[in-house]
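To: structure desk
From: M.T.
Subject: fold request, one chain
Message: Could you run this one when you get a chance? Sequence is below, nothing fancy, just the single chain.
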Amino acid sequence: MPSKALLKALTEAGVGSRRRMAEAIKQSKVDVNGITAESFNQPVNVAKDRVSVNGRAVNLKPDDTICLMLNKPGDIVSTVSDEKGRRTVLDILPPRYRKLRLYPVGRLDKDTTGLLLLTNDGDLTYRLTHPRFEHEKEYLVHIRGSLKRNEIQQLEQGVLLEDGMTHPASVETDSSTPPFNYSFTIHEGRKRQVRRMFEKLKHPVLALKRVRIGGLWLGDLKEGEVRRLSAQEIKSLLEN
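Reply: Done. Structure tokens follow.
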């Protein structure tokens, strides 16, 4: 099995966020084969090398790849822990999944509902979140009133936000799932992007729900429920 940079291996193993693992390495809390690691880029063989963080052994490669689809309710944060004591996505998983080192694939903000994936596979997370793979994400949006034609054109062409111009989006009216009145598709993943794009046009988003990632649809999964994706579904998701 080829070597990986230590920081990448730790992050992909779901031990913690990239920032937390970088800090652990800086503070000499990470050992590789009994020797304190000194570099983020130190090569490690995930099949053979013994790695520990704070003295606890780390399994760099899960034996079983798991990917769950969750219909996230509102008032739930898309993290595995929260310093403010708020309920996280792990808190609402069935007990059999809570200790499997699952991490959200990207995030939905606290008030946004809908399709969220959780997995223990770092490569899968990377493939689904890195911008260069351009996986579409479709949302249902509820705003007060209607968009004007020129506002739809602005959203479709891109909106200038404080972190730069957004990529073109797709906007469709949708009256089939009240209270939502628009379907909105993007392939970026900036923080609170959909809400910020609509706010830029003076249309605050009243409700937001993600219903699709690539070719994977939320379907009739009820809010708060979870189901495990099949190997074929994961393959199809990555091919879109």
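Reply (cont.): The mean pLDDT is 91. Let me know if you need anything else for the meeting.
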